[in-house]
Design brief:
This protein is an alpha+beta fold. The protein contains 3 helices and 7 strands, in the order ββββαβββαα.
């Protein structure tokens, strides 16, 4: 299966874990609120991609069995997968920001969808999930 990357809407309790993107002009959506995830490496599956990126970016190991919803959609760089996982609120104590992003925080998922600095395709996918 060919795809370019994967993202995860990671709920810790009722809140969504979001990452403030670096403010670098050479990256897409600098300074926007991002979700864990990123580009595919090698021949990894969409699930392996999003779980590796989540570990690298926020220090959390999420089992594949805990991915509760998924959708794929086309972007200019190819097919992207969007996943959802609901985890206990106390997992917030284990979050450790990796080398990308300025900081992380929890946000109400509806507020994320409506936020002016939410990455638009991710807000659209989350809106689709919430309406599902």
């Amino acid at each position: 299966m060919s795809f370019s990357g994967a993202k995860l809407a990671l709920f810790l309790g009722p809140q969504l874990l979001v990452i403030k993107r670096d403010d670098k002009p050479d990256i897409p959506y600098p300074g926007y609120w991002d979700l864990p995830g990123g580009g595919r490496e090698g021949t990894e599956s969409p699930e392996d991609c999003v779980l590796r990126e989540t570990l690298e970016e926020v220090g959390l190991t999420i089992p594949t069995s805990e991915l509760s919803w998924s959708n794929s959609y086309q972007r200019p760089r190819g097919l992207v997968w969007f996943f959802v996982s609901h985890q206990p609120a106390d997992l917030v104590n284990q979050v450790q920001l990796g080398s990308e992003g300025q900081y992380w925080q929890l946000m109400d998922p509806v507020s994320y969808c409506d936020h002016a600095l939410a990455v638009p395709p991710f807000a659209e996918q989350l809106q689709s999930y919430l309406g599902h």
